[in-house]
Amino acid sequence: MKFVLGKFNTEFTLGLVLVSVVVTVTS
């Protein structure tokens, strides 16, 4: 369970970084 939660947190963090990069580039 902890591994799944950690994997989700990692993907969620990468998602936030990707969104931040897209917003920075497009603005």
Automatic annotation (TrEMBL):
Superkingdom as given in the UniProt entry: Eukaryota
Record protein name field: Uncharacterized protein
Native source species: Anguilla anguilla
